[in-house]
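Hello K.,

You asked for the raw outputs rather than the summary table, so here they are, unedited. I folded two proteins back to back in the same session to keep the settings identical. This is the first:
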Amino acid sequence: MPRNKQIKSVLIIGSGPIIIGQACEFDYSGTQASKSLREEGVKVILINDNPATIMTDPSTADRVYMLPLTPDSIVKILEENDIDSVLPTMGGQTALNLCKDCDEIGIWGKYGVNIIGVDLSTIEITENRDEFRGLMKRLNISVSESIAVSNLEDAIDASIDLGFPLVVRPSFTLGGFGGGFANDFSEFETVVKRGLDASPTNQVLVEKAVLGWKEYELELLRDSNDNVTIVCAIENFDPMGVHTGDSITVAPAMTLSDKTFQKMRDLAILMMRNLGKFAGGCNVQFAVNPDSEEIIAVEINPRVSRSSALASKATGYPIAKISAKLALGYTLDEIKNPIVQTSAMFEPTLDYVVVKFPKWNFEKFPKSDDTLGLQMRSVGESMAVGRCFNEALQKSIQGLEEGKIGLSSDLTFSELSDLKKPSPNRIFKLKRAVEVGYSSEEIQKITGIDIWFIEQIKDIVDIEFKLKDKLTKKRLLEAKQNGFSDEQISKITGLSELDIVHKRTKWGINRVFKSIDTCSAEFEAKTPYFYSTFENTSYCLTGQNESKVSNKKKVIILGSGPNRIGQGIEFDYACVHGVIGAKDCDWETIMINNNPETVSTDFNLADKLYFEPVCLENVLDIIRYENPEGVILQLGGQTALKLAGDLHNLGIKILGTDFNGIDIAEDRDRFYTILDKNDIPYPEYQVIKSIEQISNVNFEFPLLIRPSYVIGGQRMKIVENKGDLLNYCGELLSIYQDNTIIIDKFISDAVEVEADLISDGKSHYIIGIMEHIDKAGIHSGDSSAYLPTKNISTKCLELVEKYSNIICEELNIKGLINIQFIIKDENVLVIEANPRSSRTVPFISKAYNVPYIKIATGVILGHIDLENFKFPKRELKGFAIKRPIFSTHKFNVEIELGPEMKSTGECIRFED
């Protein structure tokens, strides 16, 4: 049927600040939905209070409100706009819960607003654990034995009836928040109390655990005519018991029999068709008994989800975009898939394998137990594409940016029982178990991981043994086809990495680039979206590349990789604006990134997208193939910046600030030498490269310890005595063996200020100076701050500007730089400079309503001369306040804020 013409103005509810379990995948879905609706001539009004997102960019919607996600804010928006519909399925659990709250107090009815994409009865059925269980029973779909309860007394009765082990699942929560396992009464009481507190309806489901069963997810779309498309089947590497956000996941499903898959499809379609008025994307989770293949339904989410973003990037099928059109009344057969221009009814077929590997930040919370369970605790994910599971798995690990060059062994493994505990490093211990001779059956029995996956890891181990024995052309090709990096092969064979590169070049073992086309090449892909792989040698020599190189002037922009605490969605914002800015300058744009949650990896953003790890080997091969004018590093956080030295040494042109300027800023010793030369004050410091040098440190405590070349204050610490100094410096020197450690005299009771600038090497423009509310010593990402400053004297602000201009000139900054200062007793001291876009630039851009990164990109590419450029007028009245948001409830530990960043996101508030 044609779209509903009565829908003329839609309110999209966002997901708010980034928290663990609800991250930038909803920025991606909200942004896509807004584009999709506006294509149809629908006016879009959007509410979200996250300043770091593309979703809250003024260009995303007709009107953007950066207000708290509360009913009061909704009323304000409805009174100021003529809105006929609300779309709550793009903003995670936050949006669904807010939509439900507004309905309960009569807001939608009072203002004549229709809910589209889903109805409230559907939300109630799927989020209320008892309602969901009742629906499954009516449909004759098996579920685990369970009892819904609203108090501890009833929960204890339920536990007696069901018997341990048990799962506790709170209603209306996201990311498994509040849930957990219990093996006995002492554990059970704690988990139930936590679950009842977490659920907004004070209801939990006490469920018989099916630990060890295999877990699968299906991503589906349903239209108003009850047509259903299965977009993707995703298999969890880990069995039931680990939240899907914390599990390695694989698409398509690898160990699912066709008979069971068809039954699962039928069940998912039956479930979707019984969800009332529902038109859009949906995620259904199943558990499968590995012995009998019995299927039970675990849950259904009537909205786009984290897995929807992953499935969209994995298949090239834009779920959020099509979901938004379905919400307008279109049916699937009326919508085209933009990748191949086939009907959206056409289900994707993959001729490659996709692996998602979670990224955790447990090191930020050293007292936290890293056992993985029902509560999601990963902060991001690395996605990789390959022609086989092993290739995709190893590429996903290489893309984590944790110093891992592939599937290495965890040498702390001592006995098979070590594998029982699900943890971030279990797969590395599993590999070690294979190496020392444990059978696949023994490993499967203790882990519940399917034997097929264990056998794939055994193949990786076998290839390593062959490489150690002798490196031949055949063995090198086999290794590359199984995802081994050049550095990995170098370490295994004892040859230099350069030798490996020369051998594979000589033998014609080169990367080829294949399309993500949704249809296994049945139709021609219209969108340049690629991954790399290693085909048969003869193919490589004849150049079987599906990526066609143009003769246009082109630039490569390096992304920021998987989210982590200290480097998150703000760098995706920077990359997206960099692409837009470069397009405005008439350059062909090429994006390299491996984060499936982001807008920067959207299929229709850059002229070309390479979904690859942001690692030197992969990036270099793309550069050599595309032959761009140069590479932009300063928009992708520390991920991109840390490649500067290698790219410079290999003769690759770095656009914007050159390597020398980057190195001066990152090398504290060189940086402080520049400050000395210009009489710019800074805290006393000393550089150490060995534990022996600590004896020469003669500053009074407390001292601030920091490694060079890190982001988010990673491993920065304030120490109070000599013993702590020796212990911590020893720890850092063992971790950062090729790095220097800086010891700064810590200045107590100082105010911290940071300035962001755009410079073209000659002229410099301060885009914003922020004053921190918390005293210096709290990481800037964890401190509340505001713009413009209020308590800083004119004299100090003049010094901030003076020192900033000098630093820009000395570093020959071309593009963006962030400089941090501390002020005490009217003395201004410089503490660091970051020669790149920073966490604060999106906040400043939103506060002043000026697209600073687009302007900076014009400067980087030489299209804007600041001396003659007129900046847009700033629109801020009063103050913009940044408030950090923490996800520490996921780690069950008390934290003290300090120089290492702990927050996962931020919100913006405006005050007069």
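The second followed immediately with the same parameters:
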Amino acid sequence: MDIIELFINEDDEVSGIEAISVVENPAIESDFIALKNQEFKLAEVDKEKRILMGAALIPNKPIYRQSEETEYYIYFSKNTVRKASELFFIKGNQNNATLEHQLELKGLTAVESWIVESEQDKSRMYNLNVPIGTWMVSMKVNNDEVWKSVKAGELKGFSIEGYFADKLERPNEPIEDNLEIQAQAKIDKLKSLFDE
């Protein structure tokens, strides 16, 4: 199966992330957590903060894709994750949100953004054990319908929407015709690529 690196083409003005979507099944397989005041054990708290925190992009994570009859994996390098997070705010896209990549949402705003730099990261306080280099986002939810869906467990994570250039990677060595050997070689290549 092909492995495709997605990256930002700095010569292309539309390259980067246009919106963050709240979804039931995030492609990066990392759920967000819904932050409520009760989690901070504050006294006399009667209102929820209505903030979602989660991974927007995880570096070097293989993401399975299928288009028509072609199956492949995509991934983003640490450098691309950092550039994408910066451009998202430089272009003023922090209020751009969608539901399941289809319905444009009002009332969701990215209020916090950071790259995980060490094991002592804030994300660890919320049991989000994502790899170093991950782009974390906190979004304020001022949309009652979306918040009801979050509380009902119908929305579980973030997924990005954007435009990226791509680079196809193929094994450098010829592979035997035996399908089992081919499959194992591809699995080994993926493992070595994402273990770096």
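Residues 179-194 form the longest helix (16 residues).

Happy to rerun anything if the numbers look odd on your end.

Regards,
P.
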